[in-house]
Amino acid sequence: MISLPSERAVKGWLQMIPLDVGINKDLLDHLRPIVSKWAPLLRKCVIVFDEVKLKRHLTYWRGKGYVDGYVDVGSLGRRRTVADHALVFLVQGLTKRWKQPIAYYFIDKTCKTDHLVVLITSVTEALLDIGLCVEASVSDQVSKHTPSLSKSLKILVLKCGLFLFLSRVQRFALRSTG
């Protein structure tokens, strides 16, 4: 039999870890020197993002002094609507087996396309800034956002659901899995 920690203990531990909505800057600062030692081929990665259904719930974080669980898209704003989904961004190696959640946001039902454009761009630039080579982005949401994404991110729509996105350094693909 395995003894699991109490809910109170887990909440106490979480208050000590800097996990805030948005891109985790502390994690990126930790990854930067690690990535700098990798060969260029090992720096190739993809961004995976998806919406995850949540139970509507508010939590007061005494140490942080605020209530968590409202719609919160980082620098794009916070609303007094209780979130029912989280939009999670994960980065995954292409040539080396590794993956790391990099950002999350609380949303209501689905992410607005104009917000998604800003978030994809911000996450991509943050990863490029620490030396990773973003080759692609994978999501099952691309098809519902295609018209706006192709206009806003200069995506070239090809046959079979492949989208090429031109970032400030290189191009990378958005592929719909749905």
How are the secondary structure elements laid out?
Elements: H1 7-16, E1 22-23, H2 25-36, E2 44-53, E3 59-61, E4 66-68, E5 70-72, E6 78-82, E7 85-93, E8 99-107, H3 113-129, E9 133-139, H4 142-152, E10 155-157, E11 162-166, E12 171-176
Parallel strand pairs: 2-9, 9-12
Antiparallel strand pairs: 1-8, 2-7, 3-4, 5-6, 7-8, 10-11, 11-12
Structural write-up:
The chain is of the alpha+beta class. It has a domain at 19-134. Helix content is 28%, strand content 37%. Helix 3 (113-129) crosses helix 4 (142-152). The protein is globular, with a radius of gyration of 18 Å.
Percent in strands: 35-45%
Structural class: alpha+beta
Helix coverage percent: 25-40%
Distance between the termini: 40 Å
How do you describe this structure in short?
The chain has 178 residues and is α+β, with helices and mostly antiparallel strands. It has helices at 7-16, 25-36, 113-129, 142-152; strands spanning 22-23, 44-53, 59-61, 66-68, 70-72, 78-82, 85-93, 99-107, 133-139, 155-157, 162-166, 171-176.
Keywords:
alpha+beta, two-stranded antiparallel sheet, 4 helices, single chain, eight-stranded mixed beta sheet, 12 strands, 178 residues, disordered C terminus, globular
